[in-house]
């Protein structure tokens, strides 16, 4: 049977730019789960409207921290750029790139939003991995920000520093190569982001990490609308790191938040010797307390997910792109349909386990398809392991492999042979499977389909070897087998169709599980139209439709045989006869009494 949609997505995600298996929309499963997380974080962020204060000592005097500035108060702003992290050169007009006056604080009016676009010409130091900082100063209108000015007052001004240039590990050439020694291999090598601190890397290949400077083209400065009265020992832990407290009065300055939530990594500009000018878009605007805390919580969640290995680098940007570029109506439909998809996946899994747990007869069921499904799942697991997939996806795939092996124990009789030096597992057909025509028809179907599958595997493997690059021969074998499982997995469902055709019956099939899977296939059809994905994956979705439609046609053509044993080992007529005997016996007892 074809691998589930969720697992196909995991394989496509692990493949990335390998070119081995056809890739699904990258990170789609993580995108949907991230949307659900945002809804949860929105609920928790609302708790920050009324921060809970810690109980204070009743004997101590009550001291509350308040905002030093008032709502609507006019502010002046100075924006300096400097290669030094600390700035005090206020007389240097060349460092001042933006100056605004009379900005109303925490008021949502057109005057409170200021924007400016400029071009920055990098110095030679910045072109060679140097640093650049933005120094933002605010003061009450008419008051200076220079501490050397005679009219300077510390209570009237505040500031923050922000790095405009950030650093990421330099991309290095991919270790993949043409196994046939293609001369174009050196010219077409694909870049791969270097992983810092990777413990699995070979000690012999350890080299110093080289960093590159990246330019942030957007700097958004938000003044947080926060006038909460905090106790000195009761500031919420998520707010305390951002609160700038004035030591003499114990009150706090307005919070300056550099909003980079919607600044995606692919918008960063690499800085090197060839870059002569850089764009810089500046904005000043207010932000509500709730929105600020929501952004903080979501960013912390992304960092936590990356530390746990449940989210790869760049997946958070993919989730943000859904909100930035997606149609809101389509997004709502996608969320609703994805929830249905998850429910149907769970119900299909539940009924699949229930069916095999209570199944007492293999009559009419393909035992070899169960074995092939285990092999396919095991190949996918090895491929994910070879591509350094996150541990959560590996755990999910590993559980799937264990379940498929458990099904083999239900479909066949497994014995441990200890006659040799190494114990071996021996598989024997169950009597209910071998004593009727099911085994004969299953062998015929597997025999002819194996020829077709073998030709497809060989053809795809030769193509992959000739035109694609791989880390090793082992990786080539795994990627070729995984591609075949992904593209030709529907062949594993054909033996069951052949058995149904020869037996002229479908009463032995787990129809509840198949119904839920068919509903999920319809949902996949919807996604195939509304979501960008490779052509091969769209074909894989519609090929499953064809198989399920044939199943439905067989169920309509072949009437239910009441005498056939069902999935629980009972026959319909036997149960009816038993009920009649019980009823007749009860009537005779009543007459006797």
UniProtKB/TrEMBL annotation:
Stretches the record annotates as Disordered: 1-26, 170-204
Keyword line: Membrane, Transmembrane, Transmembrane helix
Cell location: Membrane
Superkingdom field: Eukaryota
Topological category with respect to the lipid bilayer: Multi-pass membrane protein
Cleavable signal peptide: none
Biased composition (Basic and acidic residues): 192-204
Residue ranges of the TM segments: 329-349, 370-385, 448-467, 473-494
Family (UniProt): Belongs to the CLPTM1 family.
Protein name in UniProt: Cleft lip and palate transmembrane 1
Organism: Arabidopsis thaliana x Arabidopsis arenosa
